[in-house]
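Final report, results section. Input specification for complex C-07:
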Amino acid sequence: MKGFRIEFERFINDLQDEICVTLEATDGQARFQEDLWQREGGGGGRTRIITNGAVFEKGGVNTSAVYGLLPESVMKYLKTDFSHFFACGLSLVLHPLNPYVPTVHANYRYFELYDDAGEVVDYWFGGGSDLTPYYFFEDDKTHFLSVQKAVCDRMGPNLYSRYRSVCDDYFYNKHRSEARGIGGLFYDYLRADKEHSGSFWFEFVTSLGHKFIDSYLPVVERRKNIAYGERQRYWQEIRRGRYVEFNLLYDKGTLFGLQTKGRTESILMSLPPRVRWDYDFIPEPGSAEEELLLALKR
Amino acid sequence: MKGFRIEFERFINDLQDEICVTLEATDGQARFQEDLWQREGGGGGRTRIITNGAVFEKGGVNTSAVYGLLPESVMKYLKTDFSHFFACGLSLVLHPLNPYVPTVHANYRYFELYDDAGEVVDYWFGGGSDLTPYYFFEDDKTHFLSVQKAVCDRMGPNLYSRYRSVCDDYFYNKHRSEARGIGGLFYDYLRADKEHSGSFWFEFVTSLGHKFIDSYLPVVERRKNIAYGERQRYWQEIRRGRYVEFNLLYDKGTLFGLQTKGRTESILMSLPPRVRWDYDFIPEPGSAEEELLLALKR
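Structure output:
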């Protein structure tokens, strides 16, 4: 079996460059700082962090490509007897300064398993992208989703609705009966099957990756100059607490990364810069803050 | 079998009153706000929160007493076939304003299982108390531990060292190879056995509970007026992030509470008021901030 290791690794590295250059131009003030790191068992990564920007208070656009032997726990989780693996991906999280600009998360990844002779025995793609606003604007949701819907619809029917609902189910804070954000796409284990080739899924995931900037940046541009004050920042910090709760309680990538001794600082770059936990904070009835909560409730 | 349900419930409620009155006097500014809540399956609790005090920026001293049927998952976890239970406890977390005053956590709890006839078939005690400073003072550690050691030593040899090391093992952020705090005691499943009666463990846990104020308050008194600035607050917020990481990634009480549909706001009162996550924050070599890290490394 021939996988997409080389092509996908090239894709994530090119996409990282493209996204970082664009975000720096949008920010106009801060630059990405790069940290290269190596993994003991094989491979490594390129962590790029932006801090204290005019637009982005904190963000990371990271790539990694690691290989070697899977821990027993992961083999069990993946229900496989093969232990030689390769995994690579791009992960990004952006926490804007202005509370009217939503936080965004995206991830594009690829996984390969090998037999003892080093032959590829299985491979699959995964990823997604979702929006977490502090104030709800229907227009932003529509734009963010429509760009991704266009990519899906070009490639086949049902793809959009299928991965849209997986996203809603996944990014959910069960203990608060509240979605983390207002949606996006989420997909995993995209494999060659009777219906679709490996090339189809490669095209699907990379096309979505190349459209990330188009889906998010216009939202940033139209909100980044809205005036805000302490009230909006306070609310932003409260909501960021919910983001932390999801990432540390439920997010598989985060928990998997920490359990498998990934690079802690690269994994936890997803956590917001400043966060607040008030006891039982309830927004005023009829306020813009309450409007967001209503959009996040099922 | 006769358990300690009535006696232990009285103990936690009395202790809650005693601790809250003392902390209010120490704070001199803020008062505890009380929320009574009821649990759908049986029982409820008394949540008491202090906020924006002169000494305590945020804190909770909560009691709960719940009963009913255990979820399957908990029965599995406890390796029991009995599903009727009673559980009660006091949980407190105090996050002081002044970064020179350590955060403290304590918990005293009691659990009973019943057969179908309503007879007690098993019961046990648990709890502990541990200190999480932002700056390391050997004196504070010594005082906090020595009060608890005196209680243990009065009741038997080895008790102190046994539960002291359980605490070190438990409050540990594996992903950072760093202890959450500088220690305390931690014990669970304290049952009547050949060596000790149920009354012995009742006496052990309640004595430790009654000594909580003596172990912590002198530390507060001697640090609460030390002058601090932005640098110390910044560090405090960074360190509080590690506290959040432990509680959401590892703390059994928190995860168990959220999974069993406990009252979210009462459980998450443990999270600090304001928190900061910087990418790869490393304190200056030789600084007081680095000194704390060295005290937390194994």
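The radius of gyration of chain B is 19 Å. The first strand of chain B starts at residue 33 and ends at 38. This concludes the modelling results for the funded period.
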